[in-house]
């Protein structure tokens, strides 16, 4: 499992085999960012964010590398219908489906400007991208409110509608709808009333699904709200000047 807050003594043995990158050898303190482009492998790295230590997937082969994957869906192996506390600290496995955690993402994005890349794939193998030239989360006291920059891409913009919205989970309803969006859509997200996207919904095999609620892994401007995507990932990296 991934390491949580402030227990540096416990994690070293557990994480040893996932930390094989040469860059880490001999360093007393793990880096606070994924390695910069070019000379490192994609994989699981330990990052030290102040007192917080997390394991994250660093993606080095894409557009120059240096990306931290903060969310990934690909096989339905992890339950994303979970509580505020789990969304805060993170869950799943960084080499599979996972959510890095609202607090680590807040910590990362409060250390300088970041960009966000959303990678999507449908069940026919068609890919699409949504890129936002800035991305950050406010602190927990502001419910990890989403701050998003300009959209570019070919997926369609299904996240700007959620800009400036607080994060909601089934047990922390901060959405602007009379009901509980996270309950109906079965995952935490920056709900409005309710959503143009929810990449944390139920991973329905095959794409189209029939359900009382719109609870799939969806990006409405790409394949519509009633289509559950096969793959989704959210990646961030420091913005280039
Ligand atoms: Ca509500």
What key attributes describe this structure?
binds calcium ion, 241 residues, alpha+beta, 13% helix, two-stranded antiparallel ribbon, globular, single chain
Helix content: 10-25%
Beta-strand share of residues: 25-35%
Average pLDDT figure? 90
The unreliable regions are: 1-22
User: What is the element string, with H for helices and E for strands?
Assistant: HEEEHEEHEEEEEHEEHE
The distinct bound ligands, ions and cofactors come out as:
calcium ion
Form type: globular
Kindly provide the radius of gyration, computed on alpha-carbon positions and rounded to a whole number of angstroms: 17 Å
The structure class reads alpha+beta
Q: Number of DSSP helices? A: 5
Total strand segments: 13
Cα distance, first to last residue? 36 Å
Instruction: Characterize the biggest β-sheet.
Output: 9 strands, antiparallel
Describe it.
The chain is α+β, with helices and mostly antiparallel strands. Helix content is 13%, strand content 25%. The chain is built from 5 helices and 13 strands. Strands 1, 2, 3, 4, 5, 6, 7, 10 and 13 form a 9-stranded antiparallel sheet that branches. The chain has a two-stranded antiparallel ribbon with strand order 8-9. A hairpin with a 2-residue loop joins strand 1 and strand 2. The longest helix is centred in the first third of the chain and has 8 residues. The radius of gyration is 17 Å and the shape is globular. The chain starts with 7 loop residues before the first helix and ends with a strand. The N terminus is likely disordered. The structure holds calcium ion (CA). Calcium ion binds next to loops.
